[in-house]
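pls read this stuff:
=====
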Amino acid sequence: MVYFKACLITVAVECAFFWLLGYRGRYKQSVIALSNVVTNLSLNIFLSYVQWMYYRPWIFIPEAIVVLTEYLIYRYAFEEGSHLLLKVFLANVITYSLGVLLEAVKLL
């Protein structure tokens, strides 16, 4: 259940973030939402398997893979390269930080 809460929060926050940056419309929002569902659930299942949550510094390796994966999907889908990697990185920093905060206050 925690995975689905985390996924829902990630999708909502990242879709809103990109919407604010001008990525509007059904196509763009669908690509963002579906990409985040796949990468978020994959990441959380992977982390639960290897139990890296106890080794916080190592989490940045799979997180970097998620950022790169989302960037490549968006670049292909939106045919855009200008500052896209920075936008994807910022979106993931926001959702990661929010997840850590919600976990710390026992809301996740």
